[in-house]
Write a structure and sequence with these properties.
elongated, four-stranded antiparallel beta sheet, 7 strands, mainly beta, single chain
């Protein structure tokens, strides 16, 4: 007698083989979240995202109010044609699309954001938005350049 799980296992293997053939890489496209450290004071914040292997052209940073959002794509490495028969013994590094949002305790000034990529870390430095600018402007009031 066969195992009651044989047909499930066979389906799983067949489905996985079909997915592998249909994708460019043997890594599934899962959205992952990079690790982050947030260092903050009353007036400034620095967020460090661990993004080794991600080119600057493959990521985007957006600041909207209290939320800093980083997203992009880390491409999976391709095994060279000369490495026929080579396969992964262990695969822990995540590849594909990623996204991470960090909420600050105060609104960040989108005009005073500094972004630096160094040694596999993406550093996002932010300054607190001035209290008068934190309030939403009254859409009924006229706006002038002088204030």
């Amino acid at each position: 007698k066969g195992s009651p799980f044989a047909s499930i296992l066979e389906y799983s293997i067949r489905t996985r083989d079909e997915e592998d053939r249909s994708s460019r890489s043997s890594f599934p496209e899962l959205r992952w979240q990079p690790l982050a450290d947030v260092v903050i004071s009353r007036e400034v914040a620095q967020i460090r995202f661990e993004l080794a292997g991600v080119a600057e052209t493959q990521l985007e940073v957006r600041v909207l109010g209290k939320v800093v959002r980083v997203f992009g794509h880390r491409p999976a490495p391709e095994l060279g044609k000369e490495q026929v028969g080579l396969g992964y013994l262990q695969a822990e590094i995540l590849y594909g699309a990623f996204e991470r949002s960090i909420e600050l305790p105060w609104r960040a000034d989108p005009e005073r954001v500094r972004i630096v990529s160094r040694a596999g870390l993406l550093l996002v430095e932010l300054e607190r938005q001035e209290p008068s600018a934190e309030r939403d402007p009254d859409p009924q009031s006229p706006r002038t350049r002088d204030g």
